[in-house]
Every structure is written in structure tokens, then in C-alpha cells.
Amino acid sequence: MDLHISSQISIPENEIELSAIRAQGAGGQNVNKVSSAIHLRFDINASSLPQTYKQRLLSLRDQRINKDGIIVIKAQRYRTQEKNRDEALQRLSELIRSAAVVKKKRKPTRPTKASQQKRMNSKTKRGRIKDLRKKVSYDD
After folding, report:
1. What is the mean pLDDT of the chain?
2. What are phi and psi of 13, to 5 degrees?
3. Helices 81-100 + 51-59 axis angle, to 10
4. I need a surface site. Which of 15, 84, 91, 140 has the fewest CB within 10 A?
5. Which of 42, 48, 86 is nearest to 68 (CA)?
6. What is the pLDDT of residues 41-83, one digit of tens each?
7. Residue ranges of the alpha helices (H) in 47-112?
8. Secondary structure letter of residue 14 according to DSSP
9. Where do the domains of the chain lie, and which CATH numbers do they carry?
10. To 10 degrees, the CA torsion angle through 106, 104, 90, 4?
11. Whole-model pTM over 0.70
12. Euclidean distance between the first and final Cα of the chain, in Å?
């Protein structure tokens, strides 16, 4: 079974390393016996992803990607191993999809003459209001 990223791209299951580990935190009687958490490892460089995806993933500033280019995801939200496995795979596909999105380049803009004039008028009006609050002096 492959992990589908998009209609054209999918990751073969043999490229994703899944291992069951014991979950951290409070539990019950089973907490020290059952390995319900999932530890997912995915090597970006050794994967069959297109080169553009690899470059974008490696350039991401994400704490889940270590300096060797390996994505490490730990899923332990659920009590069952199957649900944690599904969540880990879902988080991996979301991370790869987020790298595929190209952000639009920002075009620098300048304020219009009308907006500048409007701003100056509001500042003048505000200054007049503050002038009216001052004490009136009768030194004439």
C-alpha cells in the first residue's frame, strides 16, 4: 500500500520506516506493557519523490526534519497502534503537501495619493481635537 500525496505522486511503503514504541505520559495499567505509539522515519534523500519536492522539504525550517534529511514523526495521541500509525502517515503527507505549495511572490506597493491625504487629514483633525482640550488662557 502506497501513501498518496497527490494524483501523480505517491510514496512506496518500503521507504517509510514505522516502529512501535511505548507512549509517554500518564496511562493506566497497560502503559508499561503496550507499545501503542508510532515512531515514523522517512529519508528525504533516499526517497522516490521528485527532486523539486526534496529540495523544498530540505529547505523547510521544520523541527521534524533533522540535519541528515530524515523526517521523524512521533504519534501517540490515540490508545491504539493502528490509529497512531494512520495519524503519523497523515502528518507525513501533510508535511510533504505543504512543501509542494509555492508561495506567491509579494509585489511591493506604495500608498496612493488619496490614502496619504486621508491620513494627513485625520492626523490634523485629531490634533485639533487635542487642542480643544487644552486650558483656555485669557492673556489678550
Report:
1. 82
2. -65, -25
3. 100
4. 140
5. 42
6. 888 777 777 787 788 878 777 778 888 878 888 888 887 778 8
7. 51-59, 81-100
8. G
9. 3-100 (3.30.160.20)
10. -160
11. no
12. 93
